[in-house]
Amino acid sequence: MTSPAAHSASSRTVPARPNAAFRQLRGKLSPGEFAAAVRRSAREIGEQVSCDARYVGRVESGEIRCPNYAYERVFRHMFPGLSLSDMGFVPREAVRGRGARTAAVSAPPLAPEPDHRDTCIQSCEESDVLRRAFITGGPAAALGIAAPPAFTVPAPRPSSGGRPGAAEADAVEDAVRRIRLLDDRHGADDIYHRAMAPLHSAYALLDAGAERRSVADRLHCGAGELALSVGWLAHDSGRFGDARSHYAEALATARVCGDAALEAHAFCNTAFLARDAGRPREAVRAAQAAQRAARRLASPRLQSLLALREAGGLALLADRSGCERALTRARRFFGSGPTDHDPEWMSFYGEAELEGLEAQCWAALGDGGRAVEHARRAVALQKPHFTRNIALFTTELAGDLAADGAPEEAGVTGSRALRLLGQVKSSRIRAMLDSTARALRSHRSVKEVAAFLERHAALPAPRRG
Fold it and tell me: InterPro entries of this UniProt entry (predicted)?
């Protein structure tokens, strides 16, 4: 006979429903053949997915109710004109953002189970209203895409005694995704201040206390990831002190809830910030701490990125041999390929990012030729929807060319980066271009350099605060 606690836990799990529509799309191909077709399609659009027969089976059985962003782009490429719903998936906002935490659904409740079930699908009208209110007032609104111009995370629902439930956890997780998507396209400068409101709301929800452990775990994770997203906006917009505070807040949240993935992410961002702020020893220590936390996870790609963070600090310390060892580890881990355990926030990390970060290492070590080589690859390999990173790597290439004694090409590349700044607002990228302009002033007799310097001088003064 099933115990009451076990019954309560199992009642909160959403039963898998076979995805007949997706099975129909597979047709006469075997799961393995279809998986190979998915991988081929991914390569066609520059994506990297580790699709195999097991993944196809998980989709068709209904275990995977909505694919991650990389798989979504591949499936839309394979089946143009079909929506996720047409393929048999549920809307993204109706499922949890972090598959690694599905185990939390079966955790014992903190209080007696209420009448409604703690499911990922919010079928009640009240939850739908909360979600619509969040979406229409979300990050897109902050850029004038929708109204009102603010980010929003709903307050706790009166129906649950003022304590947060699954709808609030959904909203926090969705805020993280929307901020990241907007940053990929627009950069941080126009988003940062408006992102503070949902962060404060997320931690207010934590203080209010969820009745169920599954919701509490999701809120801790969501608030920590939101702190990291807001911290990154501060970092990219040149507010290093604010970024350091947000990253520390996320790390504290990770330690409180024992979340290894969040801890690794927080240390990863801290290492990146320390490098940019000129604290290379701190960058190395933070990257090494991140690698220790990540050992509890099963993501070679995460270990690859963390090794690159360590390499960046070692390069600034002029430790060439240590840097080269870290770069070798990074490439070895990267070669293991993506897995279903890779954190969702790592969607930006592909071959282009690997090349760009390695270029930074060689530049710091004074090897201009190798820096240019890797920066060229970063620009060529970057996926088109990562507008901010295209601007970043183009700017990085311009600086490397200037340092390597190629002013004509540096001027052309710098002008290209300036055009991208019309789409991207990033104080960090702007500062890099300012540095390149200073390096090229002695070559103003070169017409390509003169054109770049003229365009650069016409930029509006950077905003402060």
Answer: TPR-like_helical_dom_sf
